[in-house]
Amino acid sequence: EVKFMESGGGSVQPGGSLRLSCVASGFTFRDYSIAWVRQAPGKELEWVSSISTQQSTFYSDSVKGRFTISRDSGTNTVTLDLNNLKSEDTAMYYCAQDVGSRFGKAFNNRGQGTLVTSSS
Q1: 59: pLDDT strictly greater than 90
Q2: Is 29 helix (H, G, I), strand (E, B) or coil?
Q3: What is the per-residue pLDDT across 23-39, written as a single tens digit (0 to 9) for each?
Q4: Closest CA relative to residue 36, chosen from 49, 51, 54, 24
Q5: Which residues are 11's β-sheet partners?
């Protein structure tokens, strides 16, 4: 069974930082691109970032320059560093397999998520 376990969320003031982690299990981690997606209250699911099997990284325009994604195949972990957080970054963050023909378009097997709140 494919599983993702996200952690690291919390409440920070605007301008603050967080590090989110996602541990994957139940599939061959090195064979899949992995994405972080988020969903704010009352809004649709939004793609945030993806990392390919070859460590290439991709970001949405809304987070480019502020967030950094990385992966460690030794521990089956994907990390998302969130810097200079804004109130509009407040959302539940999930990781998932990125399975589309283009990055950021289709996802499988989202985890339970971790909540990020940026508010003064």
Answers
A1: yes
A2: helix
A3: 999 999 999 999 999 99
A4: 49
A5: 117
